[in-house]
């Protein structure tokens, strides 16, 4: 296990492969998850790419840090981690709020970002009303009180079968996040809007979405792809909000095809 002190926050991270020798893909997570969600993608990519995984503040084994925290704070944490690892021009793959963090990282530190994989994310996610309602529910009754509603957005009915032990495992992952970290991330998402910034993205970008995503539906992700100059757009079948868990093979194939199509030199490839 690896830990680093970044911006006064202990960040839990993992590096697979040698960043100096291989193109680097950095994965940044969704709300209510830790970096273990990427496992089935990482095992397929390891060897060809160096991989950086980390738990954003308020999640997994990372500290919650000072409150409140913003998407910009999360991006500054990720910049600190990449600086620590001497990584520049990385392929940044952000899932959901991780995609907001990726967009913010590009805005603040374009030297760190060679390409963007925006997975089940958007330039703006949800409304202030929906986030305030979720924050109030979690503050009053805990994360467990919303788990069924959230799982309907994360996973298709086929995955949510009671006999699927992976499904119960991911319910555990959600409910075991620190409440104050979860609420802080909801506030950060509520307050983030990259509608203008997305138009200025000038690195190769792909927007990917599950066809049954209940949190960032395909039409929303398509609207983000249309804001970003020359962005590509791919839909994954039989998949909701977390394709790295539900359709890792399909997601990996899209990532590989995208990275293969980028001219050498655009990233650290
Ligand atoms: O919990 C959800 O609704 C899914 C989600 C929204 C932002 C994020 O990171 O995950």
Q: Report strand order across the widest sheet.
A: 1-2-4-3-5-6-7-8
Oligomeric status of the shown chains?
single chain
The bound ligands are: ligand LWBT4IAB
Rg, Å, rounded: 17 Å
**Strand content of the residues, in percent?**
15-25%
Per CATH, what is the topology? Rossmann fold
End-to-end separation: 26 Å
Brief sketch in words of this structure:
One of its GO terms (cellular component) is membrane. With 269 residues, this protein is an alpha/beta fold.
Topology:
Layout: E1 2-6, E2 9-16, E3 24-28, H1 39-45, E4 50-54, H2 71-84, E5 90-95, H3 97-108, E6 113-119, H4 128-141, H5 147-154, H6 165-175, H7 179-190, E7 205-210, H8 218-227, E8 232-236, H9 243-246, H10 248-261
Helix pairs in contact: 1-10, 2-3, 4-7
The chain binds ligand LWBT4IAB.
Enzyme class: hydrolase
EC number: 3.1.1.24
Protein name: 3-oxoadipate enol-lactonase
